[in-house]
Amino acid sequence: MVRLDGGAFLMGSEDRLAYPADGEGPVRWVSVDPFWIDVHAVSNQEFGRFVEESGYVTEAERFGWSFAFAGLLPDDFPPTRSVAGAPWWRQVEGADWQHPEGAHSHVEDRMGHPVLHVTWNDAQAYSGWTGKRLPTEAQWEYAARGGLEGEPFPWGSELEPGGEHLMNVWQGSFPRENTTADGFYGTCPVDAFPPNVFGLFNVTGNVWEWCSDWFSRDFHTRDRRTNPGGPRAGTHKTTRGGSYLCHHSYCRRYRVSARNALTPDSSTGNIGFRCVVPA
Fold first, then answer.
1. Per the omega criterion (within 30 degrees of 0), is the bond before 175 cis?
2. What angle do CA 240, 241, 243 make, to 5 degrees?
3. Domain contains 11
4. Structural domain includes residue 117
5. Burial class (CB in 10 A: 0-12, 13-18, 19+), 41
6. Is 236 part of a structural domain of the chain?
7. Is the N or the C terminus of the chain less surrounded, counting Cβ atoms within 10 Å?
8. How many domains does the chain fold into?
9. pLDDT by residue (tens digit) across 66-81?
10. Where residue 6 sits, what CATH number does that domain have?
11. Looking at the domain assignment, is residue 246 inside a domain?
């Protein structure tokens, strides 16, 4: 983990290419107290230690299935139910954190990659076991920005400065062609690519990260400006940072201000998390 001093920062965005329903704006001053945060998302190795020592069973394992990206499935994979409006998500029996693409797959060669197919409830269980907790949206964005104000990415204003790829997102034409110009098809190791100024790896791209807050489009107009924590109740939790499936053609959410809403029992092959501790 790394200790961050906290303080006031400009949270949110009024990017004209953002999605109005996500509620990124308006930009406002927000303050957070000092805190410690994981330098990278929880890896399969770390989550495996938790499971081994606690006996925890994830919700995907109890459900018996989870959603996996169709492009990672074998060509002869049998037809299964897909998500309406997002047919690249396929319901895969036996998909869980140990078997990201179903029973034919395993994380043995991906122990340094982020754990997947974890719900918000699973992430809560892990964070509680470690004596940590999930970050608030404000903590997450403060950390992801790395001290830069008003920039869309952890390193500045350009997606690929000087032609250099600095995060793991979809390259090519989604969802049929991924040129893997950034070096990866699917997830990458949790410490791939240079960290931001605060020393945090992959705060954008690779996997969405669960936050503690209930999602609200207009929470910024109702919540306090010091250590905001979102609404007291809701139906969806907030995720941040985008994933390896984000592409400007349909999901330009690989930015530090971008937000996404998912039910706490959502389990897919592109969601992970990192934890925080008050300083």
1. yes
2. 115
3. yes
4. yes
5. buried
6. yes
7. C
8. 1
9. 999 999 999 999 989 9
10. 3.90.1580.10
11. yes
Give a three-class secondary structure readout of the chain: CEEECCEEEEECCCCCCCCHHHCCCCCEEEEECCEEECCCCCEHHHHHHHHHHHCCCCHHHHHCEEEEEHHHCCCCCCCCCEECCEEEEEEEECCECCECCCCCCCCCCCCCCECCCCCHHHHHHHHHHHCCECCCHHHHHHHHHCCCCCCCECCECCCCHHHCCCCCCCCEECCCEECCCCCCCCCCCCCCCCCCCCCCCCCCCCCEEEEEEECCCCHHHHCCCECCCCCCCCCCEEEECCCCCCCCCCCCCCCCCCEEEECCCCCECCEECCCEEEC
Residues linked to residue 31 through DSSP beta bridges, in sequence order:
8, 226
Cβ neighbours, 10 Å, residue 212:
20
Burial pattern 52-71, b for ≥16 Cβ within 10 A else e, equals eeeeeebbbbebebbbbbbb
- What digits encode the pLDDT tens for the residues 98-144? 999 999 999 999 999 999 999 999 999 999 999 999 999 999 999 99
d(CA 9, CA 229): 16
Domain span at residue 197 reads 2-42+112-278
Q: 202: alpha, beta or left, given left = phi > 0 and alpha = psi -120 to 50?
A: left
Pairing label, strands 271-272, 208-214: parallel
Tokens linked to 184 = 């990866």
pLDDT band with cut points at 50, 70 and 90 for residue 16:
confident
Report whether the peptide linkage leading into residue 26 is cis, meaning its omega lies within 30 degrees of zero: yes
The pTM for the full model equals 0.97
